[in-house]
Amino acid sequence: MSETFENLREQLAKDDIGLRMKAIHASRSLPMSERFVLLAIASSDSNARIRYDAVSQIGTVGTVDLENSFEILSDRLRVDSELDVRAAAAASLGSLQLTQAFDLLKAAYESTNDWMLQFSIIAAIGELGAPQGFDFLVKALQSPNDLVKIAAIGSLGDLGNREAVPLLIALIDDSDWQVRHRVSQSLAHLGGNDAKEALEKLVNDPMPQVSETAKAFLSSIAE
Q1: 13, exposed or middle or buried, with CB in 10 Å at 0-12, 13-18, 19+?
Q2: What's the start-to-end Cα distance of the chain, in Å?
Q3: What angle do CA 218, 221, 223 make, to 5 degrees?
Q4: 186-212: per-residue pLDDT in tens?
Q5: Are the C-beta atoms of residues 117 and 93 closer than 8 Å to each other?
Q6: What's the CA gap between 163 and 23, in Å, rounded?
Q7: pLDDT digits (tens, 9 = 90+) for 90-103
Q8: pTM of the prediction?
Q9: CA 86 to chain centre
Q10: From residue 189, how far is each of 35, 43, 195, 213 by CA, in Å?
Q11: DSSP string covering 51-118, please?
């Protein structure tokens, strides 16, 4: 028999961490509006793993109450004691495309040296689709951390501003094949003649992952 909303809310108030975690899992069977209420409660749980799970799930369930989702996720991003919870909050803000979160995300990025949090923030800004994210992402291309740099390349593709094309073309000979691979994906997404010419060069890249991405895009526009 499935648990009721009231039963699960009672479980979330128990001292037993395992019981609270089970309540989060069992909430998946509830209507989204009820599930959201439980996730909102769990987002401030004393246990970091429970907060992480709740905040991560709000990235999809939060569509039922975007205003409240923004408040919850903003709070977790600003004040949570665990970096992975803050990273999950950033990711969920991006998933919900809460464009009003841009300034908050930017401030959080600039106040940390943790690459995991920075990576999540950069990826989220691409998902937001906020035009003001362009200059910020261009700066992030200079990050000394390769994963953050790769995230910025991907987010520039997601943002859809073709002014990024020459900046990405400058990276097609980067020594890191993962950088070249993400560049090929973003150029394919952005399109245009300059991007096409760069992809024609990347067809000959020694790494199959890079060359196949370029070939797939060129084949699609030839059809």
Answers
A1: exposed
A2: 53
A3: 110
A4: 999 999 999 999 999 999 999 999 999
A5: no
A6: 47
A7: 999 999 999 999 99
A8: 0.91
A9: 12
A10: 35, 35, 9, 11
A11: HHHHHHHHHHHGGG-HHHHHHHHHHHHHH-S-HHHHHHHHHHHHHTT-GGGHHHHHHHHHT---HHHH
Residue type at position 200: E
Phi, psi of 216 (to 5 degrees): -60, -40
Amino acid at the residue 201: K
The encoded tokens of residue 178 equal 């993962």
Q: How confident is the model at residue 219 (pLDDT cuts 50, 70, 90)?
A: confident
**Tokens found for residue 147:** 């994963």
Q: What's the one-letter identity of residue 132?
A: Q
How far is the C-alpha of 184 from the C-alpha of 178, rounded, in Å? 10
Of 170, 126, 120, residue with least CA distance to 148: 120
Tokens 């993400």 found at: 182
